[in-house]
C-alpha cells in the first residue's frame, strides 16, 4: 500500500540472531480471497492507550436500522382494507419511520431505563443511523423522472419526530437497492467503471446485485442523480426547526467508494489476469493531465521513467501482463506487484501457552534475516475450512519493497518462531527480480544460493497447521515506475469524487454536523490486494471530512486497525459498520467500545433489524444484523451483549 498501511510489521531493524523452535508443517489450505477478516482478541494485543479521561465525549451507539422496505417505501393500505398501526405510522399524512425507530431501539434497550441523551454521564448514548438510499428517491411521472416528495418527507420527518441523535447516511454505492433508476443508469457506459477490456457488467456479491459505478468523472448522469437526491434531502432537512436539525450529529457520504475488478465476490486477491479500473477514455485523459501536473514537462517524466514519450498525450495507463503479452514499451507492464511491493503471506495456527509470548513468523532473504511479523490477522477462510481450531486470527503478512534489491534470483525462507524453541522451517520460495525490458533470468530459475548460513531449525511436522500463500515458488517480479503513478492517480479519483459530494453537504445548513467517509479498510485482510481498491488516499487526513471506516472481525478488536491509526495519525473517527464476526459477552464488548472511544471513535454503527411491537419485521434480513434471531457470526449473542451493556 502506498501509505504503508498494509504493512503489519515492516521491519527496518538490522539482522538479529534467530530464536529457536520445534514443531511442524501440515495442512496446506490455499489462500482464498475471502471477503471478511475476523478472529480473537489478538495475541499481540491492542496497542496501549491511556485510560479515557472522565470528561471525554461519550461514544454514541448508532445502529443502522433497515427502515426503507417496511416503512419509507411502504405503499398506503389499499382501499377496503383498514390500515394497521404500522401503516398509519408510516404512510399517514405525517408519516415517518419514527415509531419504527423507537420500537426497534426500545427492544434493544430492553429493561434498561432510557437516559436523556444529553446527560454527560451516560456511557453509551443510544441513537441510530438513518440510511438514505439516494437512487430510491426518484419516481416516474408523465413529466419524466423527478424526486418523490413523499419518500423524502418520510425520511426527514423521521429525524423530526425521533428524539434521539442520528447519523445521516447519504447512501449510494455499488450495492443495488432495487431502484428502477439503477437499471436505467447501468445501461449507460458513461456511468460504469472500465477495465482495459471495457466496461464491467453488473455482478453479484453473496446474492446481492452489484453495479460497478464509475468514479472517473463527475460529469455523468449517475453523479447528477446522486447530487440531485442529496440536495433534495438536505434542503428538506434545512426546512426543519433548529432543534430537530441539531439531532443530526454526523453525516456519512455515499458509502463504500473504491475502484473495481472482475468477480467482486472473490477477486480481491492477487490472482491473474490482473484487471483494475478505470481505463475509460475520461480516465485515460485524466491520467495524462495528472502526469503533466506532476512532471510539468515530458523530459522530466522520461528521466524519471527511463522512457521515450514525445508528449503526455502519448501515455496510456499500464495494462499488459509482461509474462504472457508482448510489450510495446516497458512502461506498459502491470501486475499486482509492479508498483514495488511483494506480499509474503500465509497463515499458521500456533497458540501460545499461558504466560508465553505469541509465536511469530521470521523471514530470511538469501540467508540473511529480513523481517519478523506477527500472526494476528483475520483469516475467516481458515476458520471455515478448519472449524475445530476455533480461531480466525491466524493470518500473517510482510510486504517486501523490492525496488532496491539487485535483479536476478533470490531465495526466501520462512520460519515459525516460538520462544525458547528452534525455528520451524515452513518453506522456501525462489523468486527472480528483473526489469520489464530485460530478457532476464527465466522464472524457472532455481533462485540464489543463500549468501549466509541459514539459522538452525527443525522441519515442519505433518501435524502443524500452517501454509505459505505467497509468493509462488519460481516466480518472477518486476518494478514499473509508471505503475505507482497510475495507482496514485486512481486513488486521487476516489478522493475527488468524495470531495464533489462533500462540497454539496458542506454548503447546506447541516455544516455544523461533521462529514465522514464510509470506507472499507482492505489493508487489514492479508489476502487482499489493496491497490485494486485504491482507497489509501481517501483514508488519509484531509480538511472538511473525517475518517469513517467499516470494521469487520479482527480490526474491531485486534491490533491491525489500531496500529494503522497510530501510524497514520490519531484523529476522530466513526465506525460506520461494526461486527466482530464472533460472539462477545457484555464485559468484552464494553472493553472493546472503551478502547475505540479512547483512541478517538465518535460513534459506532451496527446493522439492526427493524422490530415492531417486539416482533422482527419480514424483509430480506442482513446476515450481519445484530438480532436475537440471527445466529450467523454470533450476531444473536452480540445483540444480547449490547442489551446488557445498555442495561448497566
Sheet-strand content, in percent, reads 15-25%
Q: How many runs of DSSP E, i.e. beta strands? A: 27
Mean pLDDT: 87
Report how far apart the termini are.
Answer: 42 Å
- Alpha-carbon Rg, integer: 26 Å
**Unreliably modeled segments:** 1-55, 437-446
Class from helix and strand fractions:
alpha/beta
Fraction of residues in H or I helices: 25-40%
* Largest β sheet strand count, sense and barrel closure: 6 strands, mixed
The geometry reads as: globular
Number of helical elements: 17
Describe the structure.
The chain is an alpha/beta fold. The strands form nine sheets. Strands 13, 14, 16, 17, 18 and 20 form a six-stranded mixed sheet that branches. β4 and β5 form a beta hairpin. α4 crosses α6, α8 packs across α11 and α16 packs across α17. The longest helix is centred in the last third of the chain and has 25 residues. The chain is globular. The N terminus is likely disordered.
Descriptive terms for the model:
alpha/beta; 6-stranded mixed beta sheet; 17 helices; globular
What's the short story on this structure?
This protein is of the alpha/beta class and 648 residues long.
